[in-house]
Inverse folding.
């Protein structure tokens, strides 16, 4: 089973950059998209094949998540049941035959204190949401754009970014606490503890070409699912947005 997560920074813009052909060549079974920035009616027709589930934000052209999959889906739950979070189109749950997927787009706090406050609120509510799911479903995979780099190895210039949103001590501690719920950072496990692996680059000063990046996009899996992860890739080209796709292959028994 091949699972892809990508912050596409507007699916219509990414479509013009060749996203359709790229995903077709990957032959992914599940594609999780964040920052879709489109209503369901505005999503390109190809992205609804073979089946797709979308959760747009109330605000036009903002946020939004979606999952495209060839796998049989038993149930879909849009949102976490919190109006403040759900109005921004940030989280969706899909239940498959014997596992559950959460596709999430965490807020960024870089726009100012008000957005950082909204991010902390989201983190608190999201943790509670995941804890409720784990109480009845231990086979859980949480993926998406977390907008947090966990450890110094997860960004190139960590020393100069210790007071930057996305690498604040409180955010990093939240990720540590989140992992303690029983999740495995799949890409970090496959890459090794000392590997510099990034999924986001500033669009200034040739950051992507020089690989001066951050790892903001994750696939966190419960141990039984993480044990089946066999390979990953984060292709820097082609460029669809300031993020790159995070692709993981799983073999589950």
């Amino acid at each position: 089973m091949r699972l892809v997560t990508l912050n596409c920074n507007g699916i219509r813009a990414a479509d013009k950059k060749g996203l359709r052909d790229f995903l077709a060549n990957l032959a992914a079974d599940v594609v999780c998209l964040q920052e879709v920035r489109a209503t369901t009616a505005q999503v390109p027709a190809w992205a609804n094949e073979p089946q797709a589930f979308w959760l747009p934000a109330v605000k036009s052209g903002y946020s939004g998540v979606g999952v495209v999959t060839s796998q049989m889906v038993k149930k879909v739950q849009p949102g976490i049941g919190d109006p403040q979070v759900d109005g921004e189109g940030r989280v969706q749950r899909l239940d498959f035959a014997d596992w559950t997927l959460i596709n999430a787009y965490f807020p960024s706090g870089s726009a100012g204190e008000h957005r950082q406050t909204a991010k902390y609120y989201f983190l608190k509510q999201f943790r509670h949401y995941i804890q409720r799911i784990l109480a009845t479903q231990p086979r859980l995979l949480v993926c998406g754009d977390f907008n947090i780099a966990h450890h110094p190895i997860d960004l190139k210039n960590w020393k100069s970014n210790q007071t930057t949103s996305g690498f604040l001590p409180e955010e990093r501690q939240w990720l540590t606490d989140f992992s303690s719920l029983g999740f495995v950072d799949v890409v970090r496990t496959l890459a090794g503890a000392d590997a510099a692996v990034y999924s986001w680059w500033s669009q200034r000063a040739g950051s992507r070409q020089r690989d001066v990046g951050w790892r903001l996009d994750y696939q966190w899996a419960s141990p039984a699912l993480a044990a089946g992860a066999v390979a990953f890739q984060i292709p820097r080209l082609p460029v669809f947005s300031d993020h790159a796709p995070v692709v993981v292959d799983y073999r589950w028994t």
About this structure: The first strand starts at residue 2 and ends at 7. The mean pLDDT is 97.
